Amino acid sequence: MDEEGAVNAHLWGSTFHEGAAEKRPGRQQMGLAGSGNRGHAEGNVGRRGGFGRAREVEMRGTGAAGKSPKSAKLYRILIAIVVVFFLIETIGNGLVFLRLRDADLQTGGMDIFPRAAIKQSVPAGDGARFVPRVLVERLLLSRGKATLAELRKEVRAPHRPPRLALICPNLALSPLSLYMLTIANGLRELGYNLEVHSLKDGDLRLTWEDMGISVTLLEASENSTNVDWLNYEGVIAASLNSKYVLDSLAQEPFTKIPVIWVINDDTLGRRLGEYKLAASTGLISDWKRSFQRADVMVFPDYALPLIYTMLDTGNFFVVPGSPAEVWTAEEYKLTHSRVILRAQHRVRSEDFVIAVVGSPFLYHGLWREHALVMHALALTLSTVGDALPKGGGRIQLLIIGHPNQASTYGASLQVMAEHLGLKNGTVRYVVASEDVTGMLWMSDAVLYGSFRDEQAFPPILSLAMSLQRPVIAPNRRAFREQIVDGENGVLFEVGDDTKLSDAVVRILKDESKGVMAANGQSMARNMFASNVSLSYGEILESILEFPSDADLPRSLDEAAKRVKGGWCWDMLFPANTPFQDFFQSRNKDRRAENDHVGSGIIKILEDVWTLRNFIEMSQNSTDIAQNSTERVRSHISSVDSELPSTFDLREAKAIEEDVVAEKTEREELDGRKVHVQTPLEDITKMIRKTEVRKDELKERSDAEIQRSAQALCIYEPYHGRGAWPFLQEENTLYRGLSLSTVDRRPGDDDVDAEVRLPALLNDTYYRNVLCEYGAFFAIANRIDLIHKNPWIGFQPWRTSSKDVALTTVAEAALTEAVSNGRDGDAVYFWARTGGHRDSSEDFWANCDATNSGHCREAFLDSWRRMYGLTATWTALPPMPADGGSWSAMHSWVMPTSSFVDFVLFARIFVDALDTQYYAEHHDLERCRFVRFQREGQHCYCGLLEGLVNVWAYHSGKRMIYVDPKTGTMEEQHALESRHGKMWVKFFNRGTLKAMDEDLAQAADDSDFPRERWLWPQTGEVYWEGIFERERQERWRLREERKQKQKEKQALIRSRLKQQILGKVVKLPPGEGELSSVNISQKPS
């Protein structure tokens, strides 16, 4: 849908800027221009041109008024010409009805002015229909997922219902809350387990809880919440105020959660045009990103998707029906008097007013439909007379027009009415930007004057029926589904003015029209309710993926028999309470903030973006000013420097003399010194040592100092900002471990796994497919540089949301146990498979159940590849079902040395597993260990979760379960019971070390066993040959340094010494002073 169609698709009741319609081109501005009326179109052009010339001449004439009387005369002539043009246009508009007799309105043919009709094109408003073709192709047809019928044929072992999260902006009494209550009631009948998350508490909290649905208040900030959305199969959010929740769902690790977002008002859509005019592209892009996150955007009316066309990303869908019209009508009747409204519009109490409403779109044929309605009224008046039989009141037609229509459209209708013989005041025209609800409330009947084929029952008619007004509608499919002719409304054949006149006469003369209106009101109160519940169930079946441990929802046919027809009004007030009494009691304690649930976030974001733009503009202005100031200063300083003073000259001369004296002295001293030059390499090494010492002297954080004194450090692996609220912040026992540099918490001392192991974790594929094992490999890579505690543990962020994280009591008990070393080389774990105390289920059977039946197959293939076993090897390491528990969710603690051994084993196993299934998963995008696409990116995670159990059991480690609540400990699979069952030779440290060295030697020699080899990327590549090579390199460097030192010493010895310039003679004691005679002279 293009933007032009969106402009014309505003709902009735929308507000527009004054003068906006006047700025539009003629065809978009006025529905009459698209009718094919050639003379009318030319009249429009002439009128506009005439007015333009009048203004221009008026301006010129005013300036010359005092110079010539001819100017005033010319001015009057031009005004007369303008008036004539205006009358011609108005009369032309009124004469159009004369050709209506020959027009085929039912077929929609444009044969009144065929030549003009051929030349003019039909804009987007004509025949505009919303068809979610892109959504159907993308979600409903192209997902490649198994249908519910296929899933029901499979063997499943579910133990829980499918879970859904409902996001409500508040828990106040509002039509949106009633809408969500009705949806929840239908989804419960389908078999879903629901949980409500609200941004604000309210009166409906008890209602939700009485339904057995838990309610949680969200602590939502920008891009984060305190909810683990991975616990749900899907999320249904309501209102624009849920935007922050949608933004948090756009963060890892929640990006694959299916989301349905319900938008029930046009508050944002009406402002998109203003954003575009104001060039607020950042604000539009922000909303578009939020809309794009939802898998399905649901609207209760077919007009709303066209209003939000600017934000459409191919996920729009319409589920017709909402209780908003009924709610609006009941509240309006309590706050407005019908008598006062009629008096304000100069309507007598005995008059009979028929309000004419229509489509929310502006299209070409609108004027023809209004003309037909007025012609039908003329026929009616000819039948029943000008006055009503009882009371003598007049029959009036109140036409409610589109806000974007031209200002002269009402005058054109009046001219047409006069030509039809309708008296002045019989036909009135008002714009829909006024109080439409009040217009309907003060009228006596409502006529739907749009004869197009609507996609659903119009909300404006639902509002009229809720106001207990009898309705007259065309006999089309959308109307026949809700209106029974003569029972709750009147239907007429489209395009037949005689049938329409008969329908109006029936309303006028029918004494039981009050009963008809009451039936219509009762019908409107529960319109589309059952369809809404089942439609959401159908959407969920199309986008959700049901894991093997979850039940499948009931069929829609079965649920249709169980779903209660109608909106859940009885949940808001007792069944015996009259409908009006509920709204009267609510009106006494009404909260204004609950009426417009979407306006809050819109205002907040507008203020945020306004402030952001202001700051950017201020910064840009400041930078420009600073640059200008610096350029001026530099120019001034350069000019000043070109003009030296006398003082500068004296100073320069003194400096020059000092430099000459210093140079002479230095030359004399250099001749008497021995030169010892330091090589550049030695200087570089000295600088590096200095830098290292500086790093060592860098102040460490308090948490790091406290952690270094502890016996245990537990790392919390996480991926994505959505996990931040579940991490420990001030407990020094824990340390965050981010799998991605981008999503690392700012200001914390979290370990960046991507930096420590870039070869593996820079690849998004392996970061997702290995899950926590990427964190294990990153910590184990040169572990002595990052981890200095004797014990190491891991507790992923999801343990907090699963309520299996260690409490303060359990932390103290675990810390005491590892500090004392009472259990020796043990593995402590506090999250176990199945979540129950004792499990008699076999380990491999449970592994098969959680990996789509391929656990044993994958483990056996990897086992053969690891140890080079033949294809005839079919045995797996025994894991007996002795009633003990097994570790789950990677929540365990073990000695650091044991952790290094485990990583030796895990690296080889992961490499063998990836070799076996990489092509199938990465290239063909098929993962045999998961059932659905949502789980496919974490293909190996479920299989690798149990690997630590196999290693701990067969390497002879004690396995101790720690209750995460109380801290009590209980040993599982006692060592005494494992005798004769452990495969020690496969898990011996010497064996694993030898295998690791063989792989390292092959990697060091570039002797890769296959083209794509994962093992070297998972950690340090080191073997004895590398150690020997490094030792020889160190010996060679040491010998080179010794040789250079010897050469320096030899160079010093070989230098010539300075010759003696003189000698001092010391006289024997007592001989006195030397004589003036030279002592070297001989006596004659």
Structural summary, described in words:
It is built from 44 helices and 21 strands. The strands form three sheets. The chain has an eight-stranded mixed β-sheet. A seven-stranded parallel β-sheet has the order 3-2-1-4-5-6-7, with helices on both faces. Helix 4 (69-94) packs across helix 17, helix 16 (366-384) packs across helix 21 (497-509) and helix 38 crosses helix 43.
Structural class: alpha/beta
How many strands in all? 21
Please indicate the percent range of residues in DSSP E strands (runs of 2 or more).
Answer: 5-15%
Q: Please tally the helical runs, counting DSSP H or I stretches of 4 or more residues.
A: 44
Q: pLDDT average, as an integer?
A: 79
What's the helix and strand layout?
Elements (H helix, E strand, L loop, with lengths): L2 H5 L18 H4 L8 H26 L5 H26 L19 H6 L13 H9 L6 H6 L9 E6 L6 H16 L2 E6 L6 H6 L3 E4 L16 E5 L4 H7 L9 E4 L6 H9 L3 H13 L2 E4 L4 H4 L8 E3 L5 H12 L2 H7 L7 E6 L8 H19 L10 E7 L7 H11 L7 E5 L4 H7 L2 E4 L10 H8 L4 E4 L2 H4 L9 E3 L4 H13 L3 H13 L3 H15 L12 H7 L16 H10 L10 H43 L4 H25 L9 H17 L5 H7 L3 E7 L15 E5 L12 E2 H4 L1 H4 L2 H7 L1 H9 L10 E4 L3 H4 L6 H13 L5 E4 L13 H8 L4 H13 L24 E4 H28 L9 H4 L4 H4 L2 H8 L3 E5 L6 E4 L11 H4 L1 H16 L19 H31 L30
Helix pairs in contact: 3-4, 4-17, 8-23, 10-12, 14-19, 15-18, 16-21, 19-22, 33-38, 37-38, 38-43
GO molecular function: glycosyltransferase activity
InterPro entries: Glyco_trans_1 (IPR001296)
Pfam families: Glycos_transf_1
